[in-house]
Amino acid sequence: MELTTSSPSLTDSVVVDLVYKIPFADALDLFPGRKVYLEDGFAYVPLKDIVAIVLNEFRTKLPKALVLTARILPAVQSDERLQPLLNHLSHSYIGQDYSTQGSAGKISLDQIDSLFTKSFPPCMRQLHKALRDNHHLHHGGRIQYGLFLKGIGLTLEQALQFWKQEFIRGKMDPDKFDKGYSYNIRHSFGKEGKRTDYTPFSCLKIILNNPPGRLLSTIRGLLWVPIPSQ
């Protein structure tokens, strides 16, 4: 009863599974909002508020860990067994491989906006929003986003329709799109030029192609690269 009274969002049926018992001193930030129940030196923190506790603990330990790392780094770097690992660490990517084909035609144009809100990674979400807002993307953004859409299942015909509709909303003449932009879309599907069937960019490729500190004159999908306001 005390737990549900102190945290109105909880119910008796789920309170046991959704509350953490921690020393009250670790939950001081939650006291002003009366978000916890206190008893015998312990705070009972709802699951939805535990992130604040974890964040404070991380902030407390991070400076000490960085100092310790700085002290032992020279010794670690001199170890020949670890040098190859350290040298390639910044270029390593252990995430899922999205370069394989086989999903073409599995989504429709009508699904893109709904998938954008709940399933797109943040980088592609930014590109999609920029395209919808401005009805245009510069070359780098079109390549990144176009290959991503191809990878999640758009066919060539769907891709041509998608980009043409959006650019026309930006007052582009249909003939100009057909002459100046459709070639690159067909090229990305392996229908023009060297007829290479290109795959979506990996996270690592996007990161390495857009080093931090370089101002971009176009909107691209990498969130931590500085983007001009103009």
Automatic annotation (TrEMBL):
Single annotated GO MF: DNA binding
Keywords (A to Z) from UniProt: 4Fe-4S, DNA replication, DNA-binding, Iron, Iron-sulfur, Metal-binding, Primosome
Residue intervals of the DNA primase large subunit C-terminal domain: 115-212
Record-linked InterPro entries: DNA_primase_C, DNA_primase_lsu_euk, DNA_primase_lsu_euk/arc
Pfam annotation, one family: DNA_primase_lrg_N
GO biological-process terms attached to the record: DNA replication initiation; DNA replication, synthesis of primer
GO cellular component: alpha DNA polymerase:primase complex
This protein's record includes keyword 4Fe-4S: yes
PANTHER family: DNA PRIMASE LARGE SUBUNIT (PTHR10537:SF3)
Family statement: Belongs to the eukaryotic-type primase large subunit family.
Protein name per the record: DNA primase large subunit
Protein species of origin: Molossus molossus
Lineage per the UniProt record: Eukaryota, Metazoa, Chordata, Craniata, Vertebrata
